[in-house]
Request: fold
Amino acid sequence: MTSRERLIGPDGQPAYGRFSHPIADINYRDFDLRTPMGSPMHPKKRHSRFNQFQFVAIQAEPLFIGLAIVRLRFVSSAFLYLYDHDQGLWKQQRFIQPFSRGLRFGQAPNQDTVSFIQGQNRLTIRATRRPGVRQVKVALKDGTRIRATIDESTHYMPMSLCTRSGFNGWTYTQKANARVCQGEVQWQDRHYDLEALRALASIDWTGGFMRHETSWNWASLSARLPDQRKIGLNLSAGVNETGFNENTLWLDGVPTQMPQVHFQFDRSRPNAGWAITSADESVRLHFDPVIHYRDKTDALLLASNFRQHLGRFHGEIDLAHETVRIDNLWGLAEDHYAKW
Reply:
């Protein structure tokens, strides 16, 4: 693994691979982007073809929160969902605006403010290197409020990766799971104290010159094992796996690289279970969906068939010195097709 401050070098090319430390500056404007025939692209086209999104999940039994802010070529968007599985309460809301209206999105994953504003609805994710926190603030017109602070100072070792995407592109992604989270949530007439609920969060910052048409599966969890160790898990297939992969397990913040995995499920039966396994059989997981967020859009230049399930994981993962047993832990499993 390597370490560097800027992703794009003086030669106009990115560094590829897994990095020992997160990249400070995703300086995509310095990339020598060319057409498939080798002609240089105009800087304005280079900027418009760079896609970015940041996703945060917070698990605070019995509450689960998912929040994303997205910048694409022709639109900017955001979504939010909340689920209280004890009360059976579910809320989801999606916002979309043309181009970058109402959007702020920079190129420093760990020192930047990402925000989306539409009318009286405001969603913000703010990262700071010192003291090493990521703040999430949500204020919606209907009175929903979220104020959360995610610790990124204690044993912070995210997965940082850059891989090739298609013929002439690349994607950088940085992810961290099972991060301690404090704050409060006001939803309808209910108040949740995230510290009292021992909340854990996961963060996904991704940007790149991605394939025009792509798809992937993804699994993520942040939880505590019976011995109270914090476990984070990130597994994917179909994206970010050209020569390297993003699959990682964290135990109390210490990452271990995982092998490539296969997702087996029936898309026509969204409530049926999933199997997530590796070829060497070191990963043996089962996922039972409970509820899901969905977006299905088919426009002229953009399309999305996106289903993000909340549910429970069961199974085992073999490490070098132990087998980690996962029993009834809440997490996410995603099936995503996109044209952008």
Summary: The radius of gyration is 19 Å. Residues 17-339 form one domain. The chain has a mean pLDDT of 96.
